[in-house]
Amino acid sequence: MSHPLDTALALQPLGGDRFEGCTSPAYANMIGPFGGLTAAVALQAVLQHPDRQGEPVSLTVNFAAALAEGPYEVTARAVRTNRSTQHWLVEMTQAGAVVLTATAVLAQRRPTWSALDLPAPTGVPAAETLASAPNTPRLAWVQRYDMRFIEGGLPDALDGVEQPHAHSRLWLRDEPPRPLDFAALTALCDAFFPRIYLRRRRLVPIGTVSMTVYFHADAALLAEQGPQHVLADVRGHVYRNGYFDQSAELWSAAGSPLATTTQVVYYRE
Amino acid sequence: MSHPLDTALALQPLGGDRFEGCTSPAYANMIGPFGGLTAAVALQAVLQHPDRQGEPVSLTVNFAAALAEGPYEVTARAVRTNRSTQHWLVEMTQAGAVVLTATAVLAQRRPTWSALDLPAPTGVPAAETLASAPNTPRLAWVQRYDMRFIEGGLPDALDGVEQPHAHSRLWLRDEPPRPLDFAALTALCDAFFPRIYLRRRRLVPIGTVSMTVYFHADAALLAEQGPQHVLADVRGHVYRNGYFDQSAELWSAAGSPLATTTQVVYYRE
After folding, report:
1. In 3D, which of B76, B77, B70 has the Cα closest to residue B21?
2. Which residues of B touch A267 (CB under 8 A)?
């Protein structure tokens, strides 16, 4: 039996740059599918395109409309192929209307001098020693992730008492466990609760407008990570007149950088 | 006489979604024009499109190839217009080949609860009390900015002695002064020296691959800012196998958030 993520990511080639997919109830959100999954599908269309060269370095996904349950079409077009990089444009449509746009840059990486300005978190308790956060039964997608909070879990009391910040540190992985790949990592980058829920200890209507992922992992590092938990640090930045942004870093179980990600989110009230 | 930025941003409508522009020697970089200027042109095509609705919330620009000096064509297409948001795809071409792709989200903002998780820097000396950094005479674009470093200027000694991080804090503005608008703010987001120069105290070949800007300013805040210096904090994240990422926050003279920005940069060696 295939993993629910592989079912949800499945795309059928329609010839040329076109693919067809279908929303998956296993990743349902309040309205339409979990955005991280939709972002992963956009990347998947690039990765399984026969013209693809290299591995992803950056991905930006813009969510233009909530997807309806059912089929969608994805067009992935290589607009420029250089010696070591390749630039892609992706559009997802339902009934002819654009629901998502994305751009991706792929590259063939070579070993170079490497370093971190962002140190990997240290002194962190092992995932195995922490309890899994209880799942929200009404949301299917949350059940697709095992989240173990070191700090900054979704507050028990949604009492509207404002907090001074919205930092979380957690271990997370696909549920059931699944070896990490670029698509799964993309979805993980959107699996953090919107910072405004933590900051305000209050649920307000929200929707991610745009998300960017910078991939620091290559295929070798992903293979080394396998199905282990990923360590993540997440924080909010600026909340102003209906839009806020948040960022996160994701680290392998062994402390190597997997991805850095930012997103801007619409909110009401 | 018009400001060099306005000259460089000028686009002639070619009908429909198409515009023509031309590189400007005033913003020349080592190869082709300064990337921040090219990013600003991509946004400008959206902003002056007759179908445009709202103000920019996010912009992602992918640099697919170095521009050659001379004319280029920009196509800006509104792929989805919702009640309060609008999604754009932008492509820039020279001689029929894609040199840049971009996506932008525009929105009509309304006043809401607002807050900062990222506090504005405090205790910062006023721009007027600081010396302007000397310009690098060989690069035209650097002369288009007045930069006053509080910390983390380009090191005097490029002696290859690695530094533990690459943080800069500076005041900067267009030179000569010019009222801030969305296009100018976009260019400012790319006006920080690549973090790897500071981290390694060494110049290595680099090129920005993708840049994202989240706009927190609206037109009213930009008008309040006018031609004053903008305060910026910039830092590096992860340098790994040929690509590194950096992020920055830009603040108004009065301490309001103008933009947050990230970019991923190719480097050799």
Report:
1. B70
2. 112
Q: Does B201 touch chain A (CB under 8 A)?
A: no
Contact by Cβ (8 Å): A79, B101: yes
What is the DSSP-derived secondary structure letter of residue A178?
A: -
Chain B residues in contact with A82 (beta carbon < 8 A): 64-65
- Cross-strand pairs, B257: B251
Q: Give the tokens for residue B93.
A: 């071409």
Q: Within 13 A of B153's CA, how many CA atoms are on the CB side?
A: 17
On chain B, the residues whose CB falls within 8 A of the CB of A55 are: none
Taking CB atoms and an 8 Å limit, are B107 and A57 in contact across chains? no
Question: DSSP letters of B135-169?
Answer: P-TT-TGGGGEEEEEEE-PPPS-------S---EE
CA distances from B100 to A62, A212, B93, B103 (A): 17, 17, 7, 10
The beta-carbon neighbor of A214 closest among B199, B200, B245 is B245
Pairs of residues, one from chain A and one from chain B, whose beta carbons lie less than 8 Å apart = 210
What whole-number distance in Å separates Cα of residue B46 and Cα of residue B61? 13
CA distance B99 to chain A (A): 8
Choose from B202, B206, B241 for mutation: most chain A CBs within 10 A.
B241
Segment A238-259, tens digit of pLDDT: 999 999 999 999 999 999 999 9
Whether A138 and chain B come into contact, CB under 8 Å, resolves to no
Q: Rg of the Cα trace of chain A? A: 18
**Identity of the residue in B80, B107, B212 whose CB atom sits nearest the CB atom of A243:** B107
For residue A54, the 8-state DSSP code is S
Report residue A36: phi and psi, to 5°: -60, -35
Probe site for chain A from B238, B262, B266 (most A CB atoms < 10 A)? B238
Please identify among residues 54-73 of chain A the ones whose CB lies closer than 8 Å to any CB of chain B.
57-58, 60, 62, 64-65
CA A102 to chain centre: 13
- Kindly list the distances between the CA atom of residue B36 and the CA atoms of A212, B73, B232, in Å, as whole numbers in the listed order: 18, 17, 15
User: pLDDT digits over B71-123, tens only?
Assistant: 999 999 999 999 999 999 999 999 999 999 999 999 999 999 999 999 889 99
Question: How far is it, in rounded angstroms, from Cα A166 to Cα A178?
Answer: 29
What is the spatial distance between Cα B34 and Cα B203, in angstroms, rounded to a whole number?
Answer: 17
Is it the case that residue A135 has pLDDT exceeding 80? no
Regarding beta strands B243-251 and B145-151, do their DSSP bridges make them parallel or antiparallel, or are they unpaired?
Answer: unpaired
Listed in sequence order, the residues at least 6 apart from B222 whose beta carbon sits closer than 8 Å to its beta carbon are B179, B180, B181, B182, B185, B258
* pLDDT over 80 (residue B238): yes
- Non-local (6+) Cβ contacts of B106 within 8 A are B46, B52, B53, B54, B55, B56, B57, B85, B86, B88
In this predicted model, what pLDDT tens digit does every residue of A1-49 receive, in sequence order? 799 999 999 999 999 999 999 999 999 998 899 999 999 999 999 999 9
